[in-house]
Amino acid sequence: MQEQSSMLSAALSCTGSASLWLPVLLSSGLEPSVLLQPCLFEEADSEALNHLLEFMNWTTLPPPLRLILDQRRAASSWEPRPHFDSLPLLSHICRLRIREILGPDLLMRSSTVQQLPVPSLLHDFLQFRDIPETLPS
Question: Where do the SOCS box domain residues begin and end (predicted)?
Fold first, then answer.
């Protein structure tokens, strides 16, 4: 737990380069909610923020973070993906619930997902592999 706390502290001190480390941490099973920090929402580039929001229910963000996003959108320093203006799809909400039950670390392990009683076509979706790991430069 101390290692994760130290890693998170180091990552949040480098919010300007979040597009480099964020995809790696999320695909490794980091719980996205630990990244719900004002400094990240204020300083990360648009693509890094969008990537983070793909791993959560963006409609349930705490009001202070929504305010930051609204301010950045008004200032044209954040360009949200079009679907962020809508409610998440039911399939996405189900994926989030499965992650909540299993835990993000366990869910991101291929062997665990392959044992779930779901069609094999859903394995990649459950592991968020439909979201590109690399962000555009």
Answer: 90-132
